[in-house]
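Hey, I'm writing a tutorial for new members on how sequence and structure tokens pair up, and I'd like a real worked example in the thread rather than a made-up one. If someone can provide the structure for the chain below, I'll link this post from the tutorial.
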Amino acid sequence: MGKKYKIKKITHILYSGLGGTYDVCNILGKLDTKLNTKSTFIQIGPSRFNKLISQKNQTTYFIKTYRFFTIFYFLSVLSILIREKPNLVILHNYQIIPVFLYKFLFFKNLTIIYVDHTPNNLKSFKDFFVCKFFKFIIDFFVTLNKDSFKYFIDKIKISKNRIKIIPNAVNQKFIRKKIFINNLKKTVIFGMASRINNLKRHDLIVDVLQSEPLKDENIICYFAGSGENINFLKKKIKNKNKFKFFGALNSYDLKKWYQSLDFYIQATTGEGHSTSILQAMGMNLPILGSNVSGVKNFLYPKRNIGITFENNENSLISKIRSITKMTNNKRKIIVSSQKKYLLENFTEITFLNSYEKIIKKLVFNKNST
């Protein structure tokens, strides 16, 4: 048996929406069993998704905010930190001010890990300010890809012994044991699971499927997720038969949703490291993704690991036509290559081992010497 540590408390602070961050936290909660820790989650945002995160015997707090004002709710976050008394805070969003106050007023031995989920092309002054100004109190930085790693080394001036690349992992419930594909039916179904906001290109999918070259094709798209742009997107739709909105789905319904698709598409301006693509790989779906940071980093068409497109109509139309005309054998080759790549690089075990080593070094081992 491994060494048994005294119980330490970990608090994750994150935005309350669906996406890669809540998937990461869902998996990280499993470290409690391995490390003899107790995790809590503080979700901050306009909607509550606590049931999707908490593991058994863990607590999720929710602080309701309004768009653009999330950072101003630091007193509510601080009060929870004082109540929970964590030894480690893993920060997944901008709420550094309450963590700073908690560390210097109440718990000077607090360890802080900052996880960067924002692709470089979408980083704002707020991202830069939080990391640059408060880097002296952050013990360790985690990035999801090489581009973000380079940003922190070059722009934020973080030493390489304080930062590590840990790509997101796929939750094991989204990995189908057998590799198989369904024969394409008369109607081909694409799907995209994400928040519906300015960072995603749902609008491009809508425009393409309603364009002259594809408007009469039997191709439809299912959207899973919610967000501030959903009403705008629905107004763009002229042919309602081509699109269906499923809203925010729990993990059980999301898995069933993936099973209803023929292909998965991720149209986006940038990602940290798309967990939706990882889930779709695990569910035996050929992937079609934007050629942007956080997607192109782990899609390799020449190795039959997904297909990429530029974020314009002509490129996406061409790739949709190509992928829907593939033979079953070609689709199976892509699915097999994707699954092999997924299991070699993005499993829960690999992901948790990486975080476990960091937490042991920062929280446990430094106190045992």
